[in-house]
Amino acid sequence: xxxxxxxxxxxxxxxxxxxxxxxxxxxxxxxxxxxxxxxxxxxxxxxxxxxxxxxxxxxxxxxxxxxxxxxxxxxxxxxxxxxxxxxxxxxxxxxxxxxxxxxxxxxxxxxxxxxxxxxxxxxxxxxxxxxxxxxxxxxxxxxxxxxxxxxxxxxxxxxxxxxxxxxxxxxxxxxxxxxxxxxxxxxxxxxxxxxxxxxxxxxxxxxxxxxxxxxxxxxxxxxxxxxxxxxxxxxxxxxxxxxxxxxxxxxxxxxxxxxxxxxxxxxx
Length: 268
Description:
The chain is of the alpha/beta class. The radius of gyration is 22 Å and the shape is globular. The chain is built from 9 helices and 6 strands. The N and C termini lie far apart (46 Å). It has a 6-stranded mixed beta sheet with strand order 1-3-2-4-5-6, sandwiched between helices. The longest helix has 19 residues, at 35-53. The chain has one domain: Rossmann fold. The relative contact order is 0.13. The chain has helices at 14-19, 35-53, 58-67, 82-87, 97-104, 123-137, 160-168, 219-236, 247-253, and strands at 72-76, 111-118, 150-154, 170-178, 189-195, 206-212.
């Protein structure tokens, strides 16, 4: 640790501030915050506001996902624009009628998993982290898993995946969604998993993996957790408060890699 300049009292909080993005021990200048801290707060607040209003570019994301081999279909919620989406959360939880009909034509029995990517409250999060996460997820999915089309949803809330999964007749729905921006990061992605998705499902019926961003959970780590939850939910036929995330323990208990031929996959 470097020495404080002569005549200056060492800052006992300096090392703690380096270890966390939280705003701690900001100091003061008279009765107010120091100018530097006030400017940093204003910058973080502006970044969060910009993230909420940043437009979603589903076409660019669709191109990236199709290069990975995902079949993609685009839909829109009932919120006609961003202002309506922010003022009427209920509109973001239901599909536009024409898109509900479009998905209905793609429905078939036997689909295990429906994956949805939505802009949520941060389109930046979806644009930056969804494709890397799905690229890491794909080789971790169980062999023989039946997947429906990957759905890109604009002006989406978490519950929109319930209607999408119900229409597609999927056993399990997972939505990757931009979380509400905070003063630490404007591009955090959240993942929500629901077994037997249907309109009216509650938050207690979902599992959540949050804080996927550069300073938080990496897309690779989030993909490993999600893959475990997908296997567990399908095997146990449940999700939400009834399904505890034990993915970290499962990785600890995993036997060393073997050079012998793989004789089948093991359920969690």
